[in-house]
Amino acid sequence: MQQLITHIDKSEVLRYLGHQGSDIPLALDQLIDQCIELTIQTITPKFLYQRFSLVPQADGIHLEQTPIVLTGNDIREHLANCQQGYLLCLTLGLSIEKMIRVKMISNPDQGVILDSCASTAVEHLADYAEKEIAAIAAKEQLNLTWRFSPGYGDLPLSVQKNIISVMNTYQKIGLTLNDNLLLTPNKSVTAIIGLSNTKLDKRTNKCDFCNNQNHCAFRKKGKQC
C-alpha cells in the first residue's frame, strides 16, 4: 500500500505544542525530530469518500438515498448553492493512538510531542484526500467548499452515527464511534465538502463556525487550528 504520509511539517507540530517562536533547546529539537519519524513509521493512514446529491428540506439538508440529515443553520449556510457533496472519512489507525497512550505514562514529554505529530499528520491526510476530490471537481469545472465536520458550529455530533454507517467505515478503514459519539481511533476525521457549479465565497472558514473561537489560542495569534 502506498505510504500516504511521508513528511510531517515540523512548524505545525510546534504550533500544536504551543511554541511561541523562541529558540528550541537542542535536546528538545532532536526529540521532536525523533517523534516525527516515529509517527510516520507508526501511522496507518486510510481514507474514503463518496459523492451524494444534497436535498434541502425543512428539517435540514438530506443526503439523497441515505438516512443522513445535516441539521443546523451553519451547515445550511455552508452548503448554500451546493447541489452535491462528498462525505470524507479518514483515520491514522489505532497503532499511533496506543503508542501515545503508553508514552503519556512512561515518557510524558514524548507522549505530548507524539500527540502533536499525530494531530499534524491527520490534517495532512485530510488535505491529501481533499486534493483528490478537488482534482475530480476541477475536471467537471465545479467549485468546492472547505471541509465541515460534525461538531462545527451547530452541526451535531450525533450525525456521525449515520455517516459511519452509510460509509461502512468500520469494515473499510477501521473507524467507529465511542459512546460519546467521538471517533475511534481518536486521530480521525469525518467531513462534508460541498460541490457547486457557481463561484463560492472563499472568505468564510471553519473559524467562523467554531464554538471555541472566543477562547482559541490559535485565533489570538492570527492562526487556525
Question: What's the arrangement of secondary structure elements?
Answer:
Layout: H1 10-16, H2 26-42, E1 46-57, E2 60-63, E3 69-70, H3 73-78, E4 84-91, H4 94-106, H5 108-139, E5 143-144, H6 160-166, H7 169-173, E6 176-177, E7 183-184, E8 188-196, H8 217-220
Shape: elongated
Structural class: alpha+beta
Overall number of strands:
8
Mean pLDDT: 89
**Gyration radius from CA atoms, angstroms:** 18 Å
Short description:
By secondary structure, this protein is an alpha+beta fold.
Structure description:
The strands form two sheets. This protein has a six-stranded antiparallel beta sheet. A hairpin with a 2-residue loop joins strand 1 and strand 2 (60-63). It has helices at 10-16, 26-42, 73-78, 94-106, 108-139, 160-166, 169-173, 217-220, and strands spanning 46-57, 60-63, 69-70, 84-91, 143-144, 176-177, 183-184, 188-196. Residues 211-225 have low confidence and may be disordered. It has eight helices and eight strands. With 225 residues, it is α+β, with helices and mostly antiparallel strands. The two termini are 29 Å apart. Helix 2 crosses helix 5 (108-139) and helix 4 (94-106) runs antiparallel to helix 5 (108-139). Helices cover 40% and strands 18% of the residues.
